[in-house]
């Protein structure tokens, strides 16, 4: 089981004391399976199919007799035409399951890497080039 670090208090300090959040649930899971922690950096902002940036999904709705474009909360959309999911017509994805898959990708890639670094889209050591969605060193 791979879980994100957000909300566990790892590395934060409160009043000069180290915070130890999320330990009880982690210990309960450890009784049944192996638990690994991973950094959640950019896991909710990157498409898991093509690694380009996703945006909040939009929909047209009829509001007070006018058709307006509104944001759909809880849904993400990949607008990269080269994305395999875009080509199959699966452009809008639910936010939480998509982020869970991205956290799993980041965790597995970090565990399999000798330097314990996740793949480039989820690494803090890489810089995103604005306007492209690609990553460079």
Tags for this entry?
137 residues; alpha+beta; three-stranded antiparallel sheet; two-stranded parallel ribbon; 28% strand
Strand order of the largest sheet: 5-6-7
**Helix content percent band:** 10-25%
Rg (C-alpha, Å): 18 Å
Shape category: globular
Distance between the termini: 30 Å
Q: What would the average pLDDT be, to the nearest integer?
A: 82
Q: Name the beta content range.
A: 25-35%
SSE string, helix = H, strand = E? Answer: EEEHEEEHEHEE
Poorly predicted runs of 5 or more residues? 133-137
How many helical elements?
A: 3
Report the biggest beta sheet as strand number plus sense, adding barrel if it closes: 3 strands, antiparallel
What can you see in these coordinates?
With 137 residues, the protein is an alpha+beta fold. It is built from 3 helices and 9 strands. The strands form 4 sheets. The protein has a 3-stranded antiparallel beta sheet. A two-stranded parallel sheet has the order 1-4. β8 and β9 form a beta hairpin. It is globular.
Describe the secondary structure blueprint for this structure.
Blueprint: E1 2-4, E2 13-14, E3 17-18, H1 23-30, E4 36-38, E5 55-63, E6 66-77, H2 84-87, E7 92-94, H3 95-112, E8 127-128, E9 135-136
Parallel strand pairs: 1-4
Antiparallel strand pairs: 2-3, 5-6, 6-7, 8-9
């Amino acid at each position: 089981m791979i879980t994100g670090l957000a909300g566990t208090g790892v590395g934060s300090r409160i009043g000069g004391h180290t915070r130890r959040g999320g330990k009880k649930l982690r210990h309960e899971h450890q009784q049944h399976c192996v638990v690994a922690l991973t950094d959640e950096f950019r896991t909710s902002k990157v498409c898991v199919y093509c690694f380009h940036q996703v945006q909040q999904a939009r929909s047209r709705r009829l509001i007070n007799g006018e058709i307006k474009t509104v944001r759909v909360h809880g849904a993400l959309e990949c607008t990269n035409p080269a994305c395999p999911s875009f080509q199959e017509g699966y452009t809008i994805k639910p936010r939480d399951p998509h982020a869970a898959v991205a956290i799993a990708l980041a965790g597995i890639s970090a565990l399999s890497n000798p330097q314990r670094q996740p793949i480039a889209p989820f690494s803090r050591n890489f810089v995103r080039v604005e306007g492209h969605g690609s990553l460079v060193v």
